[in-house]
Amino acid sequence: MKRSEWIEVLALMRVNWPHVAIDEPVAAKWFRDVEALPGDQVKVAEEALYRDGREFPPNGAQILAKISELSRDDPDHGEAWRLARRASRIADPREAYEWLAQKSPAAAEAVRQISGFQLSYLLEDESTVRAQFRDIYNGIVKRNRRDDAYAGLPSAGLRGLEGGPRKLGSALERALPKAPAAELEAPDREAAA
């Protein structure tokens, strides 16, 4: 993000929250929080936060969290479960997993953790597996968003940040689905029934 784009964001904040003065040191800190991101994403996140009904301007961390949320757009666990069940009906396990990973990387990771890529496992003792899936899936989504928020921070000896600092842009890039070599479509037997 360019400094000129940040000045536009600040101007928009002053229009959206005219009752709050933003001091220069505060604005400088918020800019450092978001400067590695594209300016248009910061502007959209700020406007989305305004439309969410915030009473005060968002700080840099809140803008980062909104960008992560909007970049990932993870389905809720019910939709993720429906995708996983649909993938389990694809005969080739590799193809099924790839299809699911394209639709929801977090759902594919939850399936991997539960069954080691064996999607047919989802159909056994469904109520138990669904509960396990929900807990694991929600944990993955929460961890991914936390990783996005903390991207770029040095570990400073903190175990939760070890593994080396990541660039902020690379954290959000991981959230975007990769372009599929060939879009795989699972048969939608639920719709036919």
Approximate helicity band: 55-70%
Low-confidence stretches: 174-193
Shape: elongated
Count of discrete alpha- or pi-helical segments spanning 4 or more residues: 10
Main beta-sheet annotation? none
Task: Compute the CA-based radius of gyration.
Answer: 20 Å
Distance between the termini: 50 Å
Q: What do the pLDDT scores average to?
A: 82
- Strand-residue fraction? under 5%
> What is the N-to-C order of secondary-structure elements (H for helix, E for strand)?
HHHHHHHHHH
Q: Would you report the number of β strands?
A: 0
- Tally of separate domains: 2
Q: Label the structural class.
A: mainly alpha
Kindly describe this structure.
The protein is mainly alpha-helical. It has 2 domains: 3-72; 77-192, no CATH class. The chain contains 10 helices and no strands. It has helices at 3-16, 24-34, 39-51, 60-72, 77-88, 93-103, 105-115, 126-150, 168-175, 189-192. Helix 5 crosses helix 7 (105-115). The longest helix is centred in the last third of the chain and has 25 residues, at 126-150. It is elongated, with a radius of gyration of 20 Å. 25% of the residues are buried. The model is unreliable at 174-193 (pLDDT under 50).
Annotation keywords:
2 domains, mainly alpha
What is the element layout, followed by pairings?
Layout: H1 3-16, H2 24-34, H3 39-51, H4 60-72, H5 77-88, H6 93-103, H7 105-115, H8 126-150, H9 168-175, H10 189-192
Can you summarize this structure?
The protein folds into two domains: 3-72; 77-192, no CATH class.
